[in-house]
Write a structure and sequence with these properties.
Largest sheet: 7 strands, mixed
Distance between the termini: 46 Å
Strand content: 15-25%
Radius of gyration: 23 Å
Number of strands: 11
CATH class of the largest domain: Alpha Beta
Helix content: 40-55%
Amino acid sequence: MKSELAIFVAVVEKAHFSEAAKLLHLTQPAVSRSIKQLEQKMNAKLLYRTTKEVALTKAGKIVYDHAKEILGLYERMEVRVNDTMNQPAGPLKIAASYTFGEYVLPHIVARVRSRYEDIVPSITIGNTREVVTLVAEQRMDLGIIEGNVADDTVVKETFASDSLVVVASRQHPLVRKDGITMSDLVQETWIVREEGSGTREATEHMFEEHAFSPASSMEFGSTQSIKEAVEAGLGIAFLSSWAIRKELSLGTLAVLPLDSFPIERYFTLVTRATDDWTKAMQVFIECLLAHPFCNRSKD
């Protein structure tokens, strides 16, 4: 059954029998035979087949979701058994929100790999809501988010601080103005992240705290695209200091000096409510908490 589920998942994710066969080093007839056997066991049609691609039926979607969970559990079982016999090794699935995932996490992973070369990390970047969902559904071993989220299905631990600042293009008129106030920013176009993002949540909270609503805004799906938009003069943004270090050093962005800024927020580690951590998870978290940026002062 495990091999049939693995083949089924590969067909769904590749959307082609031939591509799945290549990935699994099988013949296409063998893949087709396995899918047929699985459909017989489920007593349901799982895939719509066309000459160009395959798509899930309603029953197929149910099987796919459970197959991913079953295969994940099987993989974790193998890792846990291996842990009892060997040094930290095997896959480590990490989900992280954009700011941490793009600007901090690579340095943590590099440190882990330099010490434990048999650990094989895979990184998924998403917004805060997506990261929490992935961990809760056991599709990721752990997650790291910006701020917090109300979800009792996971365990959350604040471990490091972050500071948020208002940034503009170096050529923006406000960069040369003395005594900038929040009222100067009301008429500006604000470049913001999408709903569900920790940075979007922090931006809206900042608006609320200072009792103003921007005249206009533009929504972008990543921090990098926001920085590009700000550099191009499309507007201003509220971003993490971690995310703009390179641009500040290059002189393409500038921090607007405002009273009561920067504003502090926190990074949060997200895990499932279990003590069944693999050695790979344990050493990653140790390296994470030992990193120089980590500030454990907030309980």
